[in-house]
What does this fold into?
Amino acid sequence: MKQIGHYINGEEVAGTSGRTADVYNPATGEVIAQVALADKSEMDKAVAIAAAAQPAWAAMNPQRRGRVMMKMVDLLHRDMDKLAEALSREHGKTFPDAKGDVIRGLEVVEYCIGAAEMLKGEYTDGAGPGIDMYSMKQPLGVTAGITPFNFPAMIPMWMFAPALACGNAFILKPSERDPSVPMMLAALFEEAGLPKGVLQVVNGDKEAVDAIIADETIQSIGFVGSTPIAQYIYGNGCAAGKRVQCFGGAKNHAIIMPDADMDNVVDALIGAGFGAAGERCMALSVAVPVGKETADRLIEALIPRVESLKIGPYTAGDDVDFGPVVCAAAKERIEGLVQSGVDQGATMAVDGRGFSLQGYEDGFFVGATLFDNVTTDMDIYKQEIFGPVLSTVRVDTYEDALKMTMDNEYGNGTAIFTRDGDTARDFASRVNVGMVGVNVPIPVPLAYHTFGGWKNSAFGDLNQHGPDAFKFYTRTKTVTSRWPSGNKEGAEFSIPTMK
It folds into this structure.
């Protein structure tokens, strides 16, 4: 059986803790590998190597670091299919969706080619008599990221590409459920010219996470995952004096106005609600039609589309709309929440329970499920299901829909579907959610903007990728400089002013 260790100092090494976790093929339910789970001593070793390698990398000028990013983009294109196949095998998402995972990460690497522009400081000539002032953006040192199973290519690249472009070293602790792609990415970066030891991959579980939090050399932590863990890492990381950004759960609402193009709405909800089996933090999991007529038309149009969704293994190629969920525990949790919806009085419009695929009976497949008449006190509304389940909550007015979205504890993403510009503009302006789509179901910003939610979806004051990433992974140093001409002015005891 395949054994996956860690990527340390330019090579894959075996774990030494004696602890491992099984890695599954979600389509078959088979264990296909075992991944090492690091202990503190292994993390300490990785950090020490990164700390030794970082100064020389930081001393390389930003334009040359950008050339490494440029080469990495070429390598990602070269190995796109290989990366997507490995990703699909361990995660379960379809092959086209896996390629999208890689591409959205690649776009951030591409953005980081321009690191030299982003790292320029400011300069004021003659700020005072013979005095110049300027600022420098300097790397933090050793940085770290803890990434989730649902995007094993994209989110690691969202973190380590800007961190490296800024001159930092980076320790990645990916999800132990699908660890192969992060290991492959580290090897590709070194092929692109990254010095050994600057990017390390340490596989593990909570023990590795706690080691990252406690390590005094690590200066910053990035995290994407559930809200409880985000709160844990943010609170403890900040208490340890680190710079921390943590992104948690979501419950994304789609507001459907009476004037919306219903064909466009249904296409959007089908793709954004059920793509990747709903295992996306930006999945649209709550449809909010305004008015009874709108709701009736929506449900009538959705039912046949949901019923016709094709579910299967990634090896089926384009013939599959979505695949299995990542593990047996995820399947059990999703099906338990679906049952709670029935028990609490929601209307089951399409029942995905009991789905089984011939030849893949042991796979972690969950059928597409559609609920109507969901209310905000039900568990299927309050909890992030992270599965192929779409809940419909009917409201009477636009203000009711807006209030529901704003009252929800999460604020990751939302969307409104309408033909009316005034309504769309009002919604985008007033809603307390970090990413808003107008007739766009998954409003994930491109690499040169920033990604981040509000409320219990995010902790920290800076977002991922875009300009915020270069702020997060650098410190600003301001220099006030004077070269005396020989005139003696004597000591001055009042606060300095530029008189």
The longest strand covers residues 131-139. The mean pLDDT is 96. The longest helix spans residues 40-59.
